Amino acid sequence: MDKKITMIQAQKKPGRYNIYLDGEYAFAVSESVLINYRLAKGKKLSLELIADIQISDNISKGYNKILDFLSHQMRTQKEIELKLKSLDIAEGFFDDIITKLKENHLIDDLEYAKSFVRTMYNTSDKGPQVIRTKLLQKGVSSNDIEDALILYTPELQAKNCLKLGKKLAQRYHNESFKNLQTKIKQGLITKGFSSEIANLTLEDLALELDQENEFDLLVSAGDKLWNRYVGLESKKRALKIQQALYRKGFALDDIRQYLEDKENDFED
């Protein structure tokens, strides 16, 4: 049995309209649905058409909410799907909303990934592996990620890796020479650069061992350990200090020399 539109009333919310059928409120629609279905006072609607209109309105409502979500920045399909789940929209409409967004070129995970890669290599110290992980978490496919990462050329990686390497060298300048190199390499890999590029960066940094400074660092670290273990028996103290200094990357010969000098001073 058909029903007749007896009144169309604009809501306080812009772009929404209440539809009255046979003198009673029936449902609300967006302006786009109102226009698409040519809804007007006096028009008769079948039950099937009413159902179609309500489905279209749900899709339109979800679509418009996602447009607002996209107005601030690009989003991946996964991020949009998660946003839809947080809204008061039935999951049965998700595919239609996603399809409409794709048709209007508002979802493109490859373009998103390319933009993300460019932003990361221009504004951060992150290497490809960290970028890859972040994009995977955002739901971008592995193929799209690899296509986007082509933009992060070996030359750009080398430049950014060297810049980061210099910062790390300054941060760990009070470490033993061995530990300095180890921590720089670990830091570069943790930031997402490959082991190969990390090794090349260490070569480019051209770090040199300053034997006098190295022994000064050893003495400083050794004296702290000595004060900690001064109450122990001589051999046990020497073993603990030797092990601790070796873990810090100092050479065994230098450690033994330090301990010998320290024992002699202590006995005197």
Sequence-ordered SSE layout with sheet pairings:
Layout: E1 3-10, E2 16-21, E3 24-30, H1 31-36, E4 44-45, H2 47-70, H3 77-86, H4 94-103, H5 109-123, H6 128-137, H7 142-149, H8 154-171, H9 177-190, H10 195-205, H11 211-229, H12 234-247, H13 252-267
Antiparallel strand pairs: 1-2, 1-4, 2-3
Task: Give an account of the 3D structure.
- The protein has 4 domains: 3-103, Arc Repressor Mutant, subunit A; 109-149, Winged helix-like DNA-binding domain superfamily/Winged helix DNA-binding domain (Arc Repressor Mutant, subunit A, Orthogonal Bundle), CATH 1.10.10; 154-205, Winged helix-like DNA-binding domain superfamily/Winged helix DNA-binding domain (Arc Repressor Mutant, subunit A, Orthogonal Bundle); 211-267, Arc Repressor Mutant, subunit A (Orthogonal Bundle), CATH 1.10.10.
- Helices cover 65% and strands 9% of the residues.
- It has helices spanning 31-36, 47-70, 77-86, 94-103, 109-123, 128-137, 142-149, 154-171, 177-190, 195-205, 211-229, 234-247, 252-267; strands spanning 3-10, 16-21, 24-30, 44-45.
- Strands 3-2-1-4 form a 4-stranded antiparallel beta sheet.
- It is elongated.
- The protein starts with a strand and ends with a helix.
- 24% of the residues are buried.
- It is found in: Cytoplasm.
